[in-house]
Amino acid sequence: MKTLLNVLHKDMLIEWAARSRTVALLSFAYTILLLFAFAIGPDAGALRLHAGAYMWLGLLLTSTLLLERSMRIEVEAGALSKLLLIPIDPAGLFYGKAIANTLQLLLVGAFSVPLIFVICDATLTENIGWLGLTLILGSAGLAAPGTLYAAMTARLSGSQLLLPLMLFPLVVPVIVAAVKATSLVMLGDPMDQIGAWLTLLACFNLIYWSLCGILFGRVIEA
Amino acid sequence: MARVDLEVAAHERLLIIGPNGCGKTTLLNVLSTLLRPSAGSVSYPGLAKNPRKDIGLMGHDIGIYEDLSAADNLRVFARMSDIDPAPIRALLATVGLEAGDQAVAKYSAGMRRRLALAALLQAQPALALLDEPFAQMDPGGIAGVSKAIKALPGAVIIASHQVQHAAPLATRAILMDCGQIRWTGRADQAEAAWRALHHERGEL
Predict the structure, then answer these.
(1) Model pTM?
(2) H and E: helices and strands count for chain B
(3) Where are the domains of chain A?
């Protein structure tokens, strides 16, 4: 637990020191959302219908930059080797980094929501708490496997290409469940399906967070 | 590497010299436990059960966070290692750096290596492995690094091409060539052995 908190503190310190990169990341997410809106055109109905999908695709594309960078800071100047020689608990390192990545994805998500409401003319038909919970579970579902795969690809050339190639197929269930839950919050949920989709998201999170935590040590030692 | 048989005593200062690609960095990585040997074994009788606790490595990648300041880097590693972060200013002064807010990304290569040495001094390893500690250093930096290496408490293994700076810090030296130890002797004889190898290879 102490390692987890130390890693989380360290990652937050680095993100604060390099906050201009976070601004660039938010700008990237906004650009993607605006491009979706321009591509669909002035069809308010279509934009509103697919607002959830645009939001999560924007978050998914942004996550690849964020996740790749989160491991690059560990390997580019050999900091990971130094951590291994401390020696740091690999599980603590994984959970610290995965939580830091989840928090950053949540930040991107929180900034994306107002823009989605504006450009897609979306409305909230259900409790905003459901949207918050979807954002938390969806971001966590992207961050856990993303942190593991970012560690696998960080030392390879072309890591920026390899990471999305490996990550996207794995997180399809997370994206589907998150899009469905978000769409239900925005368009209405007459059949009370939100709970089922969020339960599915929680189950995938449980699998990803436990499996990736176990595998991370082997990955960084390799 | 092949048939490398090497013993290092506690508090010994060993210099490794040899041409590029002879296996110096590989040997240091194997000794650090970060690289597993494909054959043979390494034992650490004087170190902790998990020898990593007692090993410090300053490799080509020096192990820092570029976005943080020098002091923040040392603070982060002190927290991770559960050691007292208090004497950071003094540590940085030992290697000729100031505890400013400037990110390490703006440091020169020599300043980065000095920071890496400060991190080693902070960790106080029983076995310190230094790969080219004098690379990209100006004369002032070389003096600072030499002073810092002398202050390291345990055994120190230095791999360096700059024999004239590294030899005075060591008691024993080995010369590597093509992954094997070609010569072992006193550190003050290392430069002569190095010249002899160059002569043999027709490079002098």
Answers:
(1) 0.88
(2) 7, 6
(3) 2-221
